[in-house]
User: Which sequence fits this backbone?
């Protein structure tokens, strides 16, 4: 994901095909404006359209979140995406994220 993704977010997904087997880990997301009291933004890594355990949530008045615990194994040719879901129609300003890939 790159800087500039913004607006009212309900659900969005961005992804790409992975050409080498390995592991995905260390998901991080951040925004310039917090989602608001009682709102959240959840990022979930998906492999071939299925949610994985690699997920994190920006909640209320926080600006970032990370999952530094979970690791997902992938094989060459799988499509990896990050699904973003917000509650309460949260307005997002300049959402950024990163995900680490490591060779198996």
Assistant:
């Amino acid at each position: 994901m790159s800087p500039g993704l913004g607006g009212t977010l309900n659900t969005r997904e961005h992804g790409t095909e992975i050409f080498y087997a390995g592991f995905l880990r260390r998901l991080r997301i951040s925004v310039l404006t917090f989602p608001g009291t009682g709102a959240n933004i959840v990022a979930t890594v998906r492999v071939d359209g299925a949610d994985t355990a690699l997920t994190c949530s920006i909640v209320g008045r926080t600006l970032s979140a990370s999952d530094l615990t979970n690791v997902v194994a992938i094989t060459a040719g799988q499509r990896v995406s990050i699904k973003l879901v917000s509650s309460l129609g949260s307005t997002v300003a300049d959402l950024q994220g990163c995900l680490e890939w490591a060779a198996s």
Q: What stands out?
A: The chain is about 0% helix and 65% strand. Strands lie at 5-8, 11-17, 22-30, 40-47, 50-59, 64-74, 79-86, 91-103. Confidence is low (pLDDT under 50) at residues 1-9. The longest strand covers residues 91-103.
